[in-house]
Amino acid sequence: MPARLRALVTVVCAAVLGALLPVTAAHAENRTVRGGRLDWGVKSSFQSYVTGPVAKGSYSLTGGVATVGGSAFRFHSATGTYDPATGAFRAAFSGGVHFLGHRTSGGAHQLDLTLSRPTVSVSGATGTLHVDVTSRAKDTGTVTTSRQVPFASLSLGGIDMRGGGGTVTLNNLPATLTAEGARSFAGYYTAGTALDPVSLSADVEAPASRREKQPTATSSPSADSPVPTRTAGGAIRDGAVDWGVRRTFREYVTGDIADGAWALSAGAQDGGALFRFPGGEGTYRDGELTADFEGAVRFTGAHGLDLTLSGVRAAVKDGKGTLYADVTSPDAAEKKVPLVTFTAGEPKPADGLVKFTEAPAKLTARGAEAFGGLYRAGTEMDPVSLAVALTADAELPALPDLGSDPAPSVSPQPTQTTAPDTSAAPVASTADDDGFPALPVSLAAGALLLAAAALVAVALRRRRARPAASPSDPDQG
Question: Which residues are registered as beta bridge partners of 238?
Fold first, then answer.
């Protein structure tokens, strides 16, 4: 091949490779999963067995898990990675469920099972649900704890995980108990047993290269910036109360009987299993605390249900705490009603924070009246978590992150009972994160190679069309 033609081919091939490399790099980069929820009921018949007349047990939720629908548990705060090029996905969710049943005369329970930190991993056409398991064997009573057991296999039903955008959503994935899961399940079910389906939605951050382009509103601190002074007491700089009222009350409100809902206002936030009342102001000194918080929650439903809690206040003294609220109903409106009491202990400031985490709470007599006699005084209510900042740089505990609301399907498909609903499954994106069309690597390669071939062909035709070179021609190749 003539030297100039070889040079032309070299230049064209370099251009092809140069154009392909950015495309490949952009699509090969793992993206961070941060925020989202996973809904799973484990096995609804198992729930019924635990709480039924045989086991006479119960279940409790830990780490901010909520209940949704008829029998599902909502885990939260997804963290993990997602590769849009291969579809590889892994997301771990926070929280757990503790089942107890078959109480013995000595007070222990023969059935004692905790499932926590569910993690979904997808590789190719294979999906697996991993969980941390603590269980008591029903025959020997031996308690074992196992981390990230491959508990259930998930049927993806032909879902293509490649090319997803800012949210990965999977609905009603059939789940089947694995052999490892059956052993961890204390022998209550055999491998191959169908479990409740799994649904999840997880937020995916843009690639780092994209995020770096975005201007930041937070300026870096200068050397002259004042350093907050840490103190053991005084004015509260910020604070929040996290309280879910009572799980069964929330289920009653949204269930078939009341057929209602709740609405948040004035800054209150929904953490799934709890409501956050932010903006704490008040004082803390020598173990005594008084603080007022912002936000309101209103419960409405059939049979005259209309209850609003607002103006939340917390008071702690001598290791005991009381949570107050303004209570409004169609029949009455009362200010600063002492709703529940909780065990506070002796909190000490640490890193500029004073906090109580999931302190057990009981309904007061005045609180029972506020709920219209639905519960008796002394009834266990949801635990109270409270944190107040004594310094400007202290960070409050993060609220459970449920991620974005799952996007509705463009063309909804009927819900299936034997196969997953793929209506909201990841679909190859038609645009990258900057809004420009994203050409698949294979198509880009083909187009550029065709262009290279065309250029070479043109050069050859031009060369053949030229007259034969004489020995004296200076351009002889």
Answer: 389
CA-closest candidate to residue 69, choices 156, 148, 150, 171: 171
d(CA 204, CA 167): 5
Model confidence at 300: pLDDT above 90: yes
Strand-strand pairing, 296-301 and 72-82: unpaired
**Coil vs helix vs strand at 9:** helix
- Residue 58 half-sphere exposure, CB side, CA atoms within 13 Å? 4
Q: What is the largest CA-CA distance in the chain?
A: 114
Q: What angle do CA 367, 371, 376 make, to 5 degrees?
A: 65
State pLDDT tens for residues 394-415: 999 999 999 998 764 322 232 3
Which pLDDT tens digit goes with each residue over 191-249?
999 999 999 999 999 886 555 444 444 433 443 434 444 445 689 999 999 999 999 99
Residues 6+ apart with CB under 8 A from 162: 84, 85, 86, 87, 426, 428
Q: Are 8 and 458 contacting, i.e. CB atoms less than 8 angstroms apart?
A: no
pTM of the model: 0.72
Strand partners, 136: 143
